[in-house]
Amino acid sequence: MQTVHPTKQQQSRSTANSKMNSSTSSPSKIKTTATPRTAKPKTALKTIIINANNISSTPENSVSIVDPWVPRIRNNDDYLQSGLDFSRRIIDGGAFRTHDSLQNESNSNTNNNNQSPIGDIGAVRLSDALQFNTQLLHLNLSGNDIGVIGGVQLAQALYSSFVAPANDRDVQPTPTFASRTALQSLDLSRNDISDDGALGFATAIRYNTTLKVLNLSCNRTSKMGVMALLDGLECNTTLKRLSLYWQLEGVEE
Asked: Model's pTM, two decimal places?
């Protein structure tokens, strides 16, 4: 019997057919990559308004208004990425009046007694927390009976200073200043920080590089305090608006 051997062409065809059969019999495995989910923001809040109505005006209550927010500010809570509004508005006949309509009455004692101001104690506690905060952009403390102590502390929260030890004993150590906090706007209108508070903010705006709006209207500041603030502006390139309306007599607006 004659043996017929397949040619090389026939061998290659049979090999190709066997590969095709094996590929059709077993489905190919397709690698799939999971699409990562984009994390959604926890909140869309722009400003949190703290309502202190019906709380009597005492130092203890001033602390009780501020204290719940101090650890949140210090720890950079996610939902405090925009603004906090502690402003205290004057009530007339049970209705809230706009800030613009109150300017001529800023020196009168017409604040509703049922709204408790945070005062110097609350301002100091807030300033301590602000030194560790890098997210809060806007803070409104208008009409809160904040005096010199609270005003100076809030100003000092806007910058930091450090004195490096000198290598030479005969050389006086030079302090180094740096901007601090992420605040872009601060409203301290209708308080009583006077000239000492204004001098504190004059130093603050020299070194702070984040603040864009600063409202110090109605704060019983004299010409000396206003001139100090204007001198501080010479070293500032980021502040866009400085409000100094309704100060003591003799200060031109």
From this structure: 0.69
